[in-house]
Design a protein that fits this description.
10 helices, 2 domains, binds pantoate, Pantoate--beta-alanine Ligase, Chain: A,domain 2, alpha/beta, globular, Rossmann fold, 6-stranded parallel β-sheet
């Protein structure tokens, strides 16, 4: 595996692959890699000849008072895992290579409406930061496919919309959420949980499953959403939202029909956890 920090060196390698007709997949990450990221890498390998994994803790997607400084950074461990998985390039750019004019003066990419809903209501500018960095990474690497996790389902829908609307040539793929044995979605932020919180965290997914079953049994969306928020609050979570949406565009469904998704974001101690569950009637 090559570890590349320099954009010119990356470009040279990409040109070589391009000349022999090899396809490229990009897996954008913020590092601190876990099993979930490795499953994205597997999907990437299955869909292209070469895989580039970017590791960049993107400052523009963190709000004031969020965990940009504390976000876990484990570069050596990440490199070992990626090398073991047969990844071709670990691309670890410096902030000045991604934002040459500095973060404040940088050009932004924004997908309206979708970016303002759900997590966007609670983390203003978060998705603008995500689309602004992913657009740059896609332009730098020009991959045939890029892979994102379904745990961040809103992010995936926004990036798909961006790619479609801006006529990008990269196919945006998603990989299913990986869970631990108790059902908790694997995330870098799980390490902020205390031992006691780790025991109650799987309730998030249990609440999603319970809500899905009630919706399929004919209960109303409003009733199911408010009961779930009550359950989460009673067990120590502080819920930002618990919401039933259409999975295609995250719009609010009038009734329980078609392809739906239930999305939740809730704080438990220092960790802000998100999860979702897709289902079909
Ligand atoms: O999902 C993430 O880890 C980040 O939002 C991403 C897509 C790497 C952009 O910084």
């Amino acid at each position: 595996m090559l570890t590349i920090t320099d954009n010119n060196a990356l470009r040279e390698q990409l040109i070589e692959w391009h000349q022999v007709g090899e396809t490229v997949a990009l897996v954008p990450t913020m590092g601190n890699l876990h099993k979930g990221h490795m499953s994205l890498c597997q999907l990437a390998s299955a869909n292209a000849d070469r895989v580039v994994v970017s590791v960049f803790v993107n400052p523009t997607q963190f709000g004031e008072g969020e965990d940009f400084g504390a976000y876990p950074r484990t570069p050596e461990k990440d490199a070992r895992q990626l090398s073991r998985a047969g990844i071709d390039i670990l691309y670890a750019p410096k902030a000045e290579d991604i934002y040459p004019l500095g973060v404040e003066n940088s050009t932004r990419v924004f997908v309206p409406v979708l970016s303002d809903a759900l997590c966007g209501e609670h983390r203003t500018k978060h998705f603008e930061g995500v689309t602004s960095v992913v657009m740059r990474l896609l332009n730098i690497v020009s991959p045939n496919v890029a892979v994102f996790g379904e745990k961040d389902f809103q992010q995936f829908v926004i990036l798909q919309r961006m790619a479609e609307e801006l006529h990008l040539h990269t196919r945006i793929l998603s990989a299913p959420t990986l869970r631990d044995d108790a059902g908790l979605a694997i995330s870098s932020r799980n390490q902020y949980l205390t031992a006691a919180e780790t025991l109650s965290a799987p309730l998030l997914y249990a609440t999603l499953r319970d809500a899905r079953d009630k919706l399929l049994d004919g209960e109303s969306i409003a009733k199911v959403e408010s009961a779930a928020i009550k359950t989460l609050t009673n067990t120590g979570f502080s819920a930002d939202y618990f919401s039933v949406r259409r999975s295609s565009d995250l719009s609010v469904p009038k009734k329980v029909a078609g392809k739906l998704i239930i999305l939740v974001a809730a704080e438990l101690g220092k960790a802000r956890l998100i999860d979702n569950l897709q289902f079909e009637t």
